[in-house]
Amino acid sequence: MKIYISADIEGVTGATSWSEAEKNHNDYGVFSDQMTKEVRAACEGAFAAGAKEVYVKDAHDSARNINMNGLPEYAVLQRGWAGNPMCMVSGLDESFDGALFIGYHSRGGSGDSPLAHTLDTNLEYIKINGRYASEFLINAYAAALYGVPVVFLSGDKGLTEEVNEVNKNIKTLAVKEGIGNSTINIHPDKAVRLIKEETESALKGDYSLSKITLPENFEIEIGYGRHQTAYRNSFYPGAYLASPKVINYSTKDYYEVLRLFHFLT
Ligand SMILES: [Zn+2]
Fold first, then answer.
1. How far is the CA of 59 from the centre of ligand 1 (A)?
2. Percentage, residues of the chain above pLDDT 90
3. What is the 91 CA–ligand 1 centroid distance (Å)?
């Protein structure tokens, strides 16, 4: 069994403020350590379920957050951004049996996390077929391009509810809940223990039903914070300005959606 892990930091237990997610800030160390521990727990759960290879993508900001020394020997880690449209799931292809998303967070346009956003924090929101899209949804569709199911996700409660709406068979763990500018968090050791246990049990179960079917058509709406950005980006081939801060784009090919995000977010 070969497992792919995409990891972010805003959805690990405790993380509440941007300073805690930013390298070179005094607040950061505790949370990059926790990100490393939560990813390690997912690796260990996958290994216990029979995974022989675990590929980890550090997918936050610089993509150089996870401490390699904290990962098990059977894991490989992609650090930094390759610069391809797969972005947070770079390296994911049809050779993987399943994907795990760790430390994921609520979407832009949601009030369920003080750190809620989708891709770039300068965006107000992204919608896919009329629905607010989280990074979970964007990357789960990217995995679906290669027939890879998202088996397990950990993050904030608002996101886990969204995941269950998209596909109730995807196993989720809420390690925190956002209220206004605050979060209520489970203990870091408990998060680590539960991520390991639930990853193992999800991968030992029948996760064929957690596969997502790609829609036939994609109507994309990107809402920017600044009208200047929307105007500039409306010159991307096929995109148009729907209102001063919003561009629309439509395609049948999800890879083209990823390419759009790659250049316009
Ligand atoms: Zn992030």
1. 7
2. 98
3. 18
